Every structure is written in structure tokens, then in C-alpha cells.
Amino acid sequence: MPLKTLAKFEVPYLQILNEHGKVDGRLMPKLSDKDVLYLYETMVYGRLLDKTCLSLQREGRMYTYPSSEGQEAAQAGSAFALKPEDWMFPYFREICSHIVRGLPPEKYLLYWMGDERGQQIPENINNFMICVPVATQLPHAVGMAYALKYQKKKSAVLVYLGDGATSKGDFHEAMNLAGVWNLPVVFLCNNNQYAISTTLDKQTASKTLAQKAIAYGLSGIQVDGNDAFAVYKATLDAVNSARSGGGPTFIEAFTYRLGDHTTADDASKYRSAKEVEEWRKKDPITRLQKYLEEKKLWTQAYQKKLEEGIQKKINDIVKAAEGIEPQPVESIFNFTYSEMDWNLKEQLNSIK
Ligand SMILES: Cc1ncc(C[n+]2csc(CCOP(=O)(O)OP(=O)(O)O)c2C)c(N)n1
């Protein structure tokens, strides 16, 4: 009996904008100057809003908060590839994705301030809620993709996860069904190389996360997650394919979390300052800025004006979030069941 090779697989990697701000013109997706400026401004906005959240948390005005610093390109680049009729399922570290999808920003703050009104998404925005339990959003997203296919709708689902989520059973079940049912879903894995203090090599023996797609019959690609153009292109190709019956894709955005896991963490306990410094050189915002500067679309004066405008907007957002009327106690009964059980009704009556 001969020993033969049944199949061979490859794991593609995509980078378009390198850390010096230079693009590979052959791979560059169609983006107008206005689009690129929008991406840049969204990433700067996300970073400044993120910094504000960290300050609010330190001042006791917000609860535990997970910073997105360093992951802005993976977030904005992917969300920008969606159409309004597509669906977005975020995990908990997605500040720029929410901005791109038009979530009223005070809702983002309210959520992390522990106010459930931050989770009430306006009807016209196809976003699911922020998902803190690791990986549980993945089967939900696959369920939505199944519903879209069943209803013969030409929309796609984009679901975000971290590298740590790939170790959960939910991940494998979601990937498997997505493949078997050829569903219009795109998995965007933010591989920031840590799940709190757990390094990637303790998470998986796979050389890449992208190759996990192969086992489930999905398309898989690894992209430079700090390159907004590469993330945008890979996601655009994937959602276009999903919408036209081409099936699911798994995208691994290789990136780095520059900050602590959350405000309850101290990353200096498990990684070196040198490592962080090396990744700061690959900052997704700096490299896009270099690109814009070369194209004469960026100046110091533009940056100053941009940041001042954003800061003013952020001050208004914080005011709106903190100025909201407190909720009545009864509100805790209102959003779980369409019809309340007798025992909940009894409890509700007892506090009236
Ligand atoms: C089911 C579940 N288990 C444990 C936790 C605690 N927890 C919160 S974030 C996290 C690590 C997540 O790492 P990763 O998926 O890589 O995302 P990252 O935080 O790096 O963006 C853990 C274990 C949780 N939220 N949910």
C-alpha cells in the first residue's frame, strides 16, 4: 500500500502597509483619500476615547475596562468593510469597530460604567452587544448567519474574537457548523498574543491560528493586524465571498495589545518593557500617519486640529453618559423576558 499525500495546504499572509508607512501598490485595495482619512481619524478617535476610559476608571467613574491600544487597525479596517445591512458581533476589545458601525459613543461608555442601557443597540444598527464571556458570541454569530442564509438575505456576519477564544469549545463548534453549512460568516481573530498572562504558545501548538480554518473547511488567512489596509482587504474579500455564497472565512489579525489586559491587570508582571517597546515601533496609527504624510495628507497642524475636535467631542460624550437619568430599580426586571414569570412579578411588586 503506497504512502501518498492526500492533500496539501497553505496559509497565506497579507501585509500591504509596512511599519515604515510604505504600501505595496499591487495589493492596495480601492480606497479614496477620504476613506483613508476616515480610517485614520477613526483610529485616533478610538485611541483618545480609550485613554479617556482609562482615566475615568482610575477616577472611580467607570468599572474594569479593557484597553484597545495597539489594535485599532484590526478593528477599524475590518468594520469598515461591512455594509450597514451586515451584522457585527463584537467581543470586549473593539472600540473602533463600534465607532465605525455608528454606535452612539455614550452607549459604549455607559456599558463600561455598568449601565445596561449601553447594551441597548438602536434598531437601525446591526450590532450585537459587547460579549465579555470568552467565545460565547461565536455560536450566536453562526446562528445569525444561518438565519440570514435561511431567509435568503444577501448579508454577512462579522464576528470578533481574541486568540484565547480559540481554545474554547464554542470556537470549534462555531467553526465546524459554519463550514458544514457554508454560512456567510467571517471570524476576525485579534491575535494579540496574550490571553491575560497566557502566551500564545501555551494556548496552542499550531504555528498560526489561521491554519485552524483548514481543518473545518474554511478559507483562512493571516494578516498584519497593525496594517489597516491589509485587514480591510482581507475582510472585504471575505464578506464579499460570504454574501455571494462563497462560505465562511477565518482571518487572523496578528497584532499586539500595548496596554494591560484590563485595568485590573499589570502586564509588566508577565512581559518585558523591551517587548512592548518593539511593538510600539509597529504602532498601527503611526504607520498610517507616515503614509498620509508622504501623500501630503498629514501635517502637524492637521493633527492638532483633529485631536482638539475629538477631545471636545469626547468631553460631550462623557457628559452625556454621566448626565443620564439613573434607572429606576424596576428596570432590572425589564429586559430579560418578553413575559415575566409569576415569581418575578411578585418580586417586582414587592419593591414598588
Ligand atoms: C468564559 C470565560 N472564561 C474566562 C473569562 C475571563 N477572561 C476574560 S478575558 C480573558 C482572556 C481573553 O483572551 P483573548 O481571547 O486572547 O482576548 P484578549 O483579551 O487578549 O483581547 C479571560 C480568560 C471570561 N471572560 N469568560
What does this structure look like?
This protein is an alpha/beta fold and 352 residues long. It has one domain: Thiamin diphosphate (ThDP)-binding fold, Pyr/PP domains (Rossmann fold). Helix content is 43%, strand content 10%. It has helices spanning 33-58, 72-79, 95-100, 105-112, 137-150, 169-180, 200-203, 212-215, 228-243, 273-280, 284-294, 300-322, 342-351; strands at 13-14, 87-89, 157-162, 185-191, 194-195, 198-199, 219-224, 249-254. The strands form two sheets. It has a six-stranded parallel β-sheet, with helices on both faces. The protein has a two-stranded antiparallel sheet with strand order 5-6. A hairpin with a 2-residue loop joins strand 5 (194-195) and strand 6. Helix 1 (33-58) runs antiparallel to helix 11 (284-294). It is globular and about 75 Å long. The structure holds thiamine diphosphate.
Give the gist of this structure.
The protein has 352 residues and is of the alpha/beta class. It has helices at 33-58, 72-79, 95-100, 105-112, 137-150, 169-180, 200-203, 212-215, 228-243, 273-280, 284-294, 300-322, 342-351, and strands at residues 13-14, 87-89, 157-162, 185-191, 194-195, 198-199, 219-224, 249-254.
